[in-house]
């Protein structure tokens, strides 16, 4: 008897250990050897990223309903811990534009204490997800879903900056829903500030021109600094960080827990779940982008644990949600970073900015920061991918547009869930179309692997074309999506056939629905006096078939079509 060795029977020692999965990349680079040259490269990269992160961290925090200082705290504390404990060599953590919608809604509904509680709960959820090794499954989010919700977030971010871009004055709080927001801004149009509009347009223009002419410069910081200089020298009457927030403290706050009650924790669980889901997607997507740029590979579950710890720590210091950021991570790589030390240096340089230059931030106009976020929103939209998916197929277009519209007009979490469900249905439909069943009429002997002489079955073309026997071959995954179409074909067996052969040699996978379909068919055939042979099943498929129900009582397993026809021919001898 021939013994087949399956891949799943590999020794347990070949599987990744706990240490393999959860050792931070910082430890890995130190094991490889870390010298002064590496430290110099990481310091330069860290300084470069910090210069980019200063205006972004403040702008994202303000747009989220927090203070600019909270954005910097988030980048310093969260960014340091993500690099210290993370599973990616190059990941840069901080506040992200993708969170603006959720964070702003949470602050509006539950206040700053509610946001901090939700941030810390999300951190605990991410730690649990990492240790449960759920990071591996984040990659199953369909591409049209990520493109759709990213584009939707970009639209909402841009809409949230219109008030500052135009210098509008609203009589009440700015509405959250997009349609209500646009209506309120339209009614406030007469209050538009000419200096704010000119400053916004000038800042956008400077960023666009410098990106094209000098892309290696910190264009956003230059544009924001230029807007602050213009406001100070020209005495422009526009709102600044100083007039709205009173400036930025020159030190980190003391770690403290928010006021916790059981009812408050339960109330914040939905928001925390949304933060955790988006944070996992955003950070692992950023890590994948980094892998593609460098040829390295990240440890997804280790990265989730680091993201979780970073969110808990950020909340303790009064920060907001922190995650891996694609743009800053890409900047880190292009600046020549060697490893996670660059991310840690980026956080230390931001801390140095607070300690030394915090008073200068008071002169930054909100219109300038709004212009930065307008550019960020434009860059977030994967315009080519969006257009390609709309044209690619009706299924991809439907998933993309449904996710995009739900993100804008409903809720980000709902958009991801519905988009994922719709994408799964599209996938199931496509997979069902790849599974085929056809009547098999062999004219030559079936190809078989070399075996001993006693394992070989003589081929008899007469028995293979016996009018009492019908042979069907299934090709592709036999699962619930294809079960109905296959069952409809097999149910049409003519009464004059006395034997049915179902060949599974081209079936890589079966599920319980497939087993139930075959078992029901076999019992129906048995009542009509028809013998059913199941041939060519791989060891894994055969094991699945035998595991469910009592199929062994209804069918006869044979290694090949030739073996089944030979057994049928010999039944009367």
Automatic annotation (TrEMBL):
<dbReference type="InterPro" id="IPR001902">
    <property type="entry name" value="SLC26A/SulP_fam"/>
</dbReference>
<feature type="transmembrane region" description="Helical">
    <location>
        <begin position="182"/>
        <end position="210"/>
    </location>
</feature>
<feature type="transmembrane region" description="Helical">
    <location>
        <begin position="272"/>
        <end position="292"/>
    </location>
</feature>
<feature type="transmembrane region" description="Helical">
    <location>
        <begin position="347"/>
        <end position="378"/>
    </location>
</feature>
<feature type="transmembrane region" description="Helical">
    <location>
        <begin position="115"/>
        <end position="134"/>
    </location>
</feature>
<keyword id="KW-0812">Transmembrane</keyword>
<dbReference type="InterPro" id="IPR011547">
    <property type="entry name" value="SLC26A/SulP_dom"/>
</dbReference>
<dbReference type="InterPro" id="IPR036513">
    <property type="entry name" value="STAS_dom_sf"/>
</dbReference>
<feature type="transmembrane region" description="Helical">
    <location>
        <begin position="44"/>
        <end position="63"/>
    </location>
</feature>
<protein>
    <submittedName>
        <fullName>SulP family inorganic anion transporter</fullName>
    </submittedName>
</protein>
<feature type="transmembrane region" description="Helical">
    <location>
        <begin position="141"/>
        <end position="162"/>
    </location>
</feature>
<dbReference type="InterPro" id="IPR002645">
    <property type="entry name" value="STAS_dom"/>
</dbReference>
<feature type="transmembrane region" description="Helical">
    <location>
        <begin position="217"/>
        <end position="236"/>
    </location>
</feature>
<feature type="transmembrane region" description="Helical">
    <location>
        <begin position="470"/>
        <end position="490"/>
    </location>
</feature>
<feature type="domain" description="STAS">
    <location>
        <begin position="459"/>
        <end position="568"/>
    </location>
</feature>
<dbReference type="Pfam" id="PF01740">
    <property type="entry name" value="STAS"/>
</dbReference>
<dbReference type="Pfam" id="PF00916">
    <property type="entry name" value="Sulfate_transp"/>
</dbReference>
<keyword id="KW-1133">Transmembrane helix</keyword>
<keyword id="KW-0472">Membrane</keyword>
<feature type="transmembrane region" description="Helical">
    <location>
        <begin position="399"/>
        <end position="429"/>
    </location>
</feature>
<feature type="transmembrane region" description="Helical">
    <location>
        <begin position="69"/>
        <end position="85"/>
    </location>
</feature>
<feature type="transmembrane region" description="Helical">
    <location>
        <begin position="304"/>
        <end position="327"/>
    </location>
</feature>
